[in-house]
TrEMBL record:
Principal subcellular localisation of the protein: cytoplasm
Compartments, as annotated in UniProt: Cytoplasm
Keywords of the record: ATP-binding, Cytoplasm, Kinase, Lipid biosynthesis, Lipid metabolism, Magnesium, Nucleotide-binding, Transferase
Family: Belongs to the GHMP kinase family. Mevalonate kinase subfamily.
Pathway: Isoprenoid biosynthesis; isopentenyl diphosphate biosynthesis via mevalonate pathway; isopentenyl diphosphate from (R)-mevalonate: step 1/3
Pfam families, per the entry: GHMP_kinases_C, GHMP_kinases_N
EC number: 2.7.1.36
Record protein name field: mevalonate kinase
């Protein structure tokens, strides 16, 4: 069955242990966030145009391109149905797409995050459309998210997974209707592989953990308080700083990475049996006053902290802690959530929502209004 409109949803993530070590081949423990997700509305067009709406990134007007201007001739000759396991990242294609991302827009109208989001979409679209026999000649996409951007919660991976899933569906490489376990597994793996290509556009050398969590979801359920310090941080820069230290002081840094690896492995055993910043330290200090334990998540240097909530902690106690974290001068932003939510999912047009309604929907109402029905 070919759809003309559908909604894709993918969760954010938290890394409990091994944030930096995982980039260097060590173990990390991560889980999908329950309720903090990205949503993307895909709608078929036949006029040869691509429209990308990014209202939560502060973009006042949609990106608009003609499908005919994309450099399909630069796409490597691949068999998409087998996945891009052996696909070399196409720097030539990426460079060419960079030159057309801002088509019709003044440089002052768009910021770096908006440019990267558009570049990622066009890169995937060009690669996947090249081998597709679909009748889709263009599409309108609107992306919404209740994930804070640049806070270590996997917002870029959630976005990448939504794009990969929507394009693979639109171009006929996967189907959401086939409920056989083997086909679901095959579709999920294909989504994850293409989402990883998108993450390369955004981060350069991602570990692959974020897109895997956003695709497959699930983990052992843990309840916690997530606190956004609102201190901006740039994952790519923080990861490169660690890489530089590893190159300059390999013996020392490898010992640290091995120690982090050991912590992650120990936590795995516990589950089977049953780089900081002053703001993150402040979250830990406040939570400790209530006998709760906190750590950073993501690359550090700001972003978010996670505080484990034991079963004996009452709702009233949680509200008191949140009030303390929200209070001046910190003004942190708290989310009461858990890990172990569903991975990427698809909702067909049985939900009657149009582009205007989707654009105007309040971010905190996305989950309530949209929900999901079909899991890829």
């Amino acid at each position: 069955m070919s759809l003309d409109k559908y909604i894709i949803s993918a969760p954010g993530k938290v890394i409990l242990f091994g944030e930096h070590a995982v980039v260097h081949g060590k173990t990390a423990i991560a889980g999908s966030l329950d309720g903090l997700r990205t949503y993307a509305l895909f709608e078929k067009r036949i006029d040869g145009y691509l429209e990308l709406n990014l209202p939560d990134l502060g973009l006042q007007h949609a990106f608009l391109w003609q499908t005919s201007e994309l450099p399909y001739n630069l796409v490597n000759n691949i068999e998409t149905k087998d996945g891009p396991q052996n696909l070399q990242f196409n720097d030539i294609l990426l460079h060419k797409i960079k030159s057309i991302v801002s088509n019709g827009k003044d440089d002052q109208e768009i910021n770096h995050i908006q440019q990267i989001a558009a570049l990622t979409f066009l890169y995937l679209y060009t690669c996947l459309k090249n081998n597709s026999q679909t009748l889709w000649d263009g599409m309108t996409i609107c992306v919404r998210s209740n994930l804070p951007i640049g806070s270590g919660l996997g917002s870029s991976a959630s976005y990448s997974v939504c794009l990969a899933t929507g394009l693979l569906l639109g171009f006929g490489y996967i189907s959401y209707e086939n409920n056989e376990k083997q086909e679901i597994k095959k579709s999920s793996e294909l989504i994850n592989l293409w989402a990883y290509q998108a993450e390369k556009v955004i981060h350069g050398t991602p570990s692959g953990v974020d897109n895997s969590v956003a695709t497959f979801g699930k983990t052992q359920s843990l309840r916690f308080l997530l606190t956004n310090t609102k201190v901006p941080r740039h994952t790519k820069t923080l990861v490169e700083n660690v890489r530089t230290r590893l190159e300059n002081f390999p013996k020392i840094v490898n010992l640290i990475l091995d120690a982090i690896h050991g912590i992650s492995e120990s936590f795995k055993e516990i589950l089977e049996k049953e780089i900081s910043h002053p703001s993150l330290d402040k979250v830990r200090e406040i939570a400790a006053q209530y006998d709760l334990h906190t750590k950073l998540t993501g690359a550090g240097g700001g972003g978010c902290a996670i505080t484990l909530i034991r079963n004996d902690v009452s709702k009233e106690q949680i509200e008191i802690i949140k009030k303390a974290l929200n209070a001046s001068p910190h003004c942190f932003e708290c989310y009461e959530t858990s890990i172990g939510g569903y991975g990427v999912s698809v909702l067909d047009t049985c939900i009657d929502i149009n582009l205007k309604e989707f654009l105007e929907c309040e971010k905190n109402k996305l989950t309530e209004i949209i929900g999901w029905k079909y899991f890829v």
